[in-house]
Amino acid sequence: MTDIKIDTEYITLGQFLKIAEIIQSGGMAKWFLSEYEVFVNGEQDQRRGRKLRTGDQVQIEEFGSFTIV
Questions:
Q1: CA distances to 27, 57, 69 from 3, in Å
Q2: Which one is the CATH code of 2-68: 3.10.290.10, 1.10.10.60, 3.40.50.920, 3.40.190.10?
Q3: What confidence score (pLDDT) does residue 47 get?
């Protein structure tokens, strides 16, 4: 499990993908979410605007598990 540190109240799922270095640019988020299953706190979610807060867990098959801290 990898920790992703944020300095704000929340980040979006699209921002998370870039911060975690899963995608190279924010423009790739929509494509990535349509191609891969992303689970936030155990529920599948494909909304790049989904707000992630401290304590949330993100699982992406082939990329691993992440915790927002």
A1: 23, 9, 6
A2: 3.10.290.10
A3: 95
